[in-house]
Design a protein that fits this description.
mainly beta, Beta-galactosidase, Chain A, domain 5, six-stranded antiparallel β-sheet, 1 helix, Aldose_1/G6P_1-epimerase
Length: about 300
């Protein structure tokens, strides 16, 4: 008996919300509210294109040429993005994750990340997806260092929120007061820059037009609960994304290079515990000691 390329499909439902999480990478393949897609999706028999809905562990974004030093030792990761000569988006997004718990409105998957030449550390990972009829989807990722040495760690995720129409006519609100310039290989160049007076300033929300963005934001404004919010508003409906305080960085991508049918139809909003190339720079990198646990959450709702 055959099964989809992305493995088992775990559907959860609460009120008007419906989501599907895949065995492959514990990825978020779809999320709908009243039948309207809140994220860009892909077929169950199609590997996630352009990292749609994937979890990015133990680092988000890129590591320049896959090289880094940690605790006095030099390491070489596999170069998984040859076009830019980088290692990208971690080690677990194509791996099978095991079902740990399943209920009508929530599902938990786990994965044991064993050591490799480029990352000789041992982590137990857990991804909890839960739906609430009022609050939408919450995703919580937990990493526990079950190995014998301190591990460099970061995580992120890669959903593309959508309102079912092209980004150009949508109003986009991004809470960051600084953005990170990058070079032509998408590696940060210099410190974060103030968004004030630049096209990257979307703090008050504005129609995006034809602006292209593929940059990390920081200095995120937060509400009384410590959450930072991105809002995407179309002519008929809106989608909102939040990230908690364990994520001081937010990559925003206007989906200019995704497969043609989805190009600029959704906004990549990537919560990150550290910026691009953090394994090399050490900026906001988590030093996960043996026995230590790290947890972070984000979520999506109709607005």
């Amino acid at each position: 008996m055959s099964e989809p390329t992305t493995g088992a499909q775990y559907e959860i439902i609460a009120g008007p919300y419906r989501a599907v999480v895949t065995e492959a990478g514990a990825g978020l393949r779809s999320l709908c509210h009243d039948g309207n897609a809140l994220i860009l999706t892909h077929g169950a028999d199609e590997p996630a294109p352009a990292a749609f809905g994937q979890l990015l562990i133990p680092w988000p974004n890129r590591v320049d040429r896959g090289r880094y030093s940690y605790d006095g030792v030099d390491y070489q990761l596999d170069v998984s993005e040859p076009a830019f000569d980088c290692a990208i988006h971690g080690l677990v997004r194509w791996s099978p994750w095991r079902l740990a718990e399943r209920h009508p409105d929530r599902v938990t998957l786990t994965h044991r990340l064993l050591g490799s030449a480029g990352y000789p550390f041992h982590l137990d990972l857990r991804a909890d997806y839960s739906l609430d009829a009022e609050g939408g989807l919450t995703i919580r990722v937990t990493a526990v260092n079950v190995g014998s040495r301190t591990a460099p760690y970061g995580h992120g995720a890669h959903p593309y929120i959508t309102v079912g129409e092209p980004l150009d006519a949508c109003t986009v609100t991004i809470p960051g007061d600084r953005y990170l310039p990058v070079n032509d290989r998408m590696i940060p160049e210099g410190p974060p820059q103030q968004v004030a007076g630049t096209p990257y300033d979307l703090r008050d929300g504005r129609v995006l037009g034809d602006q292209k963005i593929d940059n990390a934001y920081t200095g995120l404004a937060r509400d009384a609960d410590g959450l930072a919010w991105v809002h995407l508003a179309g002519s008929r409906r809106g989608t909102s994304f939040w990230l908690d305080g364990t994520h001081p960085w937010l990559e925003v991508f206007t989906a200019d290079t995704v497969p043609a049918a989805s190009r600029r139809q959704g906004l990549g909003v990537e919560p990150m515990t550290c910026p691009p190339n953090a394994f090399a720079t050490g900026i906001d990198l988590v030093d996960l000691k043996p026995g230590d646990r790290h947890t972070g959450s984000w979520g999506i709702r109709a607005s």
